[in-house]
């Protein structure tokens, strides 16, 4: 019987201990398991199903490097107003060619600044005028680009620009759609005119080359591929995209490995979460899958080890979530019944390990850190969670070999085409997490 937990019930600190043990069933039948050959093989060719376990070579540490120096290279350029100098104040020598170039560039930017969408060019502006500084750019949205969120469009269009800077430009109102300020969640339509401010992109056009080891890891991680999408078994510790002190993520690495391909993230996984990551290869597929996500038609299942004993076999948590930033810019998600967005997670018990519980988590919504926050709200945080978990419990689990967050995107079901049956893909639990479960089965955790 399903038990629903709402805001009024608070934290389930009094959850009774159920010492019954049950075997771990598979998420789907074996015939649903799909895995494909390494990157570069013809699309649609699948290899044998992966063995339970698999390698887990991802680093366990969490990088917190500052991105101040990187952002300084991408700071926005504001056109300077010209100032009248008194006679005799200027040098007598003629201005250099470099000076003329700089003056003309500033003049061009000033004229672009006042340009209206009606006079906007239909094609992107020319290359940066000097030292990586771009002009004001007008982009007309075509049918292939229409339908996506403006923030996702900017992240794809402004390649090499940090994610944090993209959202800063949106917050400041410096990105305009048809002369109006653009919200990150706003969806662009065919024919819209998007204004991009001048940007300093010192590394624009610089080649991004993932290491041979990273390329090998991504090639081995391919679970499924056809002509529209691919699914990777993302290793823990690898970010899905660059930014915030991370130079290279999964999507940047794949684009470097497949130059010219229109690869885009369909959804995201936290850096410390492993498992199924869906990536589109065509804009039409991206729009279709985003629509499926909004309608709840993409089935995503996770395996998580919770630091608590759940009394019911199935619990549904309905608690609104809001995202906040604390000192230092760290992102923290909290249960917020007033300003939060509706969020719903269903937990099903898969195995009881003393005071710990292995669960399958099914998302009905896709909020940031949703599983982790809802689990902590139940009083049973995800094992190894440095942000929402208990440090003392995490330290004890480290003695059993748990060096990372015990959260794995184990299964994914989606429909690449409307006229085709759904595709079911599963990712084997990493060997390091399997080893932790085995040690817990041999001990009595209290």
TrEMBL record:
Its EC number(s): 5.4.99.24
**Biased composition regions of type Low complexity, renumbered to the chain:** 91-108, 119-128
The record's section on InterPro entries has: PsdUridine_synth_cat_dom_sf, PsdUridine_synth_RluA-like_CS, PsdUridine_synth_RluC/D, PsdUridine_synth_RsuA/RluA, RluA_PseudoU_synthase, S4_RNA-bd, S4_RNA-bd_sf
| UniProt cross-references to Pfam families, sorted A to Z | PseudoU_synth_2 (PF00849), S4 (PF01479)
Q: Is RNA-binding tagged as a keyword?
A: yes
Which UniProt keywords are listed? Isomerase, RNA-binding, rRNA processing
**Region listing for Disordered, in residue ranges:** 40-132
Q: What EC class does the entry list?
A: isomerase
| Active site (record annotation) | 270
Where does the record place Polar residues bias? 59-70
Q: Which reaction does it catalyse?
A: uridine(955/2504/2580) in 23S rRNA = pseudouridine(955/2504/2580) in 23S rRNA
Question: Which molecular function terms from Gene Ontology are attached?
Answer: 23S rRNA pseudouridine(955/2504/2580) synthase activity; RNA binding
RNA-binding S4 domain: which residues?
148-207
Gene Ontology BP terms? enzyme-directed rRNA pseudouridine synthesis
Is RNA-binding among this UniProt entry's keywords? yes
The family note in this entry says: Belongs to the pseudouridine synthase RluA family.
Functional summary from the UniProt entry: Responsible for synthesis of pseudouridine from uracil at positions 955, 2504 and 2580 in 23S ribosomal RNA.
Name of the featured protein:
Ribosomal large subunit pseudouridine synthase C
Q: Which organism is it from?
A: Halochromatium salexigens
